[in-house]
Write a structure and sequence with these properties.
Elements (H helix, E strand, L loop, with lengths): L9 E5 L2 E2 L2 E2 L11 E5 L4 E9 L2 E9 L14 H5 L4 E4 L4 E5 L7 E2 L4 E9 L10 E9 L7 E3 L1 E3 L4 E7 L10 E9 L4 E12 L1
Parallel strand pairs: 1-7, 9-16
Antiparallel strand pairs: 1-4, 2-3, 5-6, 6-16, 8-10, 10-14, 11-12, 11-15, 13-14, 15-16
Length: 200
């Protein structure tokens, strides 16, 4: 991502939720806000983050923010630190999971199990896109090989995937998930969790 242009006209803000917990993308403390300068022209960007082995790659189109995009609840970073231009959250797809785990954070081996994935956006976008496609792949060998899991829409920005678990000995490293999603604005996300949960 090129942020060195001298013709900066806005700041974009990004607070990241990756996998099950809050992480700060490029920062040391959880919950920090990441702000970066972008040129005024609409352009395509790639944003990558890796935390605790979970890798997330976003591709998104950023255009000039409108007045409606500026949140009243969250101040513009430019106003706080003396930057220039308007600011707004970028249209990145974040993923929230309901893995349906038992109390010991495991799932029974040899079972057919459903995982729910919800796509969402940061507050502050005037018209958030709609998640139009979500695909799930599973791995039982620590991410060395992947196979598709049947996935279907289950509500607004919500999808369920059906995972057929092997015997516990065939998934000694647990169950990995790789999710690819796209929205109506052409933005995409690909998140890889080498070990999302274990079998018992």
């Amino acid at each position: 991502m090129n942020t060195t242009s001298p013709w900066l006209r806005r700041k974009a803000t990004l607070a990241g939720l990756v996998a099950a917990g809050i992480v700060a993308l490029g920062c040391a403390a959880a919950g920090d806000i990441v702000a970066y300068d972008l040129p005024p022209e609409s352009a395509r960007y790639t944003f990558e983050a890796e935390t605790n082995g979970v890798k997330t790659v976003w591709e998104y189109t950023s255009g000039k923010p409108t007045e409606a995009d500026v949140s009243e609840l969250q101040p513009c970073m430019g106003d706080v630190v003396g930057g220039v231009g308007e600011c707004r959250p970028e249209p990145l797809i974040f993923l929230r999971y309901d893995l349906g785990l038992d109390l010991d954070n495991t799932v029974k081996a040899g079972s057919v199990h459903q995982v729910t994935i919800i796509g969402y956006y940061q507050e502050g976008l005037s018209t958030p896109p709609k998640v139009t496609d979500l695909r799930v792949e599973v791995s039982f060998d620590g991410g060395r090989s992947w196979q598709p899991a049947p996935t279907k829409a289950a509500g607004k920005n919500t999808y369920t995937a059906t995972v057929k678990h092997p015997k516990r000995g065939q998934a000694a490293e647990g169950v990995g998930l790789r999710i690819s999603a796209a929205d109506s604005g052409g933005n995409t996300v690909k998140q890889t969790i080498p070990t999302a949960y274990r079998l018992r």
